[in-house]
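Practice problem 4.
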């Protein structure tokens, strides 16, 4: 079995956090349909951002876990040691629940710019803790800002 298949199987089974395979960031789509985030096995997964009519959606994907959808959950994003606590809701995702937050443009910009300028983000959520490199985040998040007209 090729190494890539073993790594994908291990990720899907939850043997290591999703950030362990993240290599860089990318933006996909154009205009207000742009989505930017971390890449895992070549796909946008882990931490990603998209445009909404009101501003920006922040989504943290998981690998099969489900959470209480009736309350908010605390998720901490620590960019190069500077922590930001976000209140997020669990919503159905492709594999278990994702954590989602929607912010007005002016509220989202400081986090997006910190991620674009940073080297690494540590994600601490009810699903676990892991780090994602921010290589390519400046270009990806710049495309998001342009597409969302932030």
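Answer key:
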């Amino acid at each position: 079995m090729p190494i890539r298949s073993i790594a994908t199987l291990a990720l899907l089974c939850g043997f290591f956090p999703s950030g362990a395979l993240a290599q860089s960031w990318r933006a996909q789509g154009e205009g207000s349909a742009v989505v930017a985030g971390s890449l895992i096995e070549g796909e946008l997964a882990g931490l990603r951002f998209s445009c909404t009519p009101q501003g920006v959606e922040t989504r943290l994907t998981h690998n099969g876990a489900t959470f209480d959808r009736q309350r908010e959950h605390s998720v901490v994003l620590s960019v190069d040691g500077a922590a930001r606590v976000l209140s997020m809701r669990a919503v159905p995702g492709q594999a278990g629940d994702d954590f989602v937050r929607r912010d007005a443009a002016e509220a989202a910009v400081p986090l997006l710019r910190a991620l674009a300028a940073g080297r690494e983000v540590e994600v601490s959520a009810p699903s676990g803790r892991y780090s994602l490199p921010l290589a390519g985040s400046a270009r990806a998040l710049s495309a998001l800002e342009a597409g969302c007209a932030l």
